[in-house]
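So, is this right?
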Amino acid sequence: MNPEYQAAQCASKSTERKRVVIIGLDPSLIDFSSPDFAAFPGLTTEKVLSGITAAEDGLKALGYDAQHCLIDFGQTAETVVTAELQKQRFDCILIGAGVRAVPSNFILFEKLINGHLEKSTIHLIPA
């Protein structure tokens, strides 16, 4: 499912711009040759960054105030996400596949959901 469609599911009929944050792994920290990421052949740091930018641009073109929040593999991820969510209110959070679809990141995904996001009143949609 694409981010534009998912964000549209989060929007109300209000004319106010809805804020969307895309939480994902910092691609400069990913070893794309590792078995966990080998399931995504051809990915590189540049391709992931390009995809993030394209998703943001697509959401902005649809009228959303979109931004990304890049995290590490857990060392500071919870702190970074908490700080980002405290800066402003978001109407929708998209969680990237690198966090939610890679089995070795299951604990990180659970920590983000259980520790921070589930207490929120916003919609949670995997990106």
Q: What stands out?
A: The longest strand covers residues 19-25. The chain has a mean pLDDT of 84. The two ends are 7 Å apart (CA to CA). The chain has six helices and four strands.
